[in-house]
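Long-time lurker. I teach an intro course on protein structure, and each term I like to show students one example going from raw sequence to a predicted 3D structure in token notation. This year I'd like something fresh instead of my usual example. Would anyone be willing to generate the tokens for the chain below so I can use it in lecture? Attribution to the forum is fine with me.
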Amino acid sequence: MNLFHGEIVDLCSEDGMPLGRVLVGGAVKKLSLVLVADARPGETVLVCDGIALSKVCDAKKLVARRRRDCRERSPAANSRTRRRESF
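-- Reply from a regular --
Happy to contribute to a lecture. Here you go:
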């Protein structure tokens, strides 16, 4: 299974099926958006075998949120762990 993420560039449809032009790895591909019909241009989607599986949140926001969560948990985690002395 090959999973990629790509940014939706444009929306279109063929025979009533929602499609989108998605920028994946530097190339624009026409992909099915049946599973993410509410996706809009500019959003990022997870792609497998020509089908957009789900929307992906903004990676920068996700990394920032994870870092913030780690900082918030860090003092509590450090107070519960003890440092082992080496002999």
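Some talking points for your students: The mean pLDDT is 82. Residues 3-80 form a domain with the SH3 type barrels. fold (CATH 2.30.30.140).
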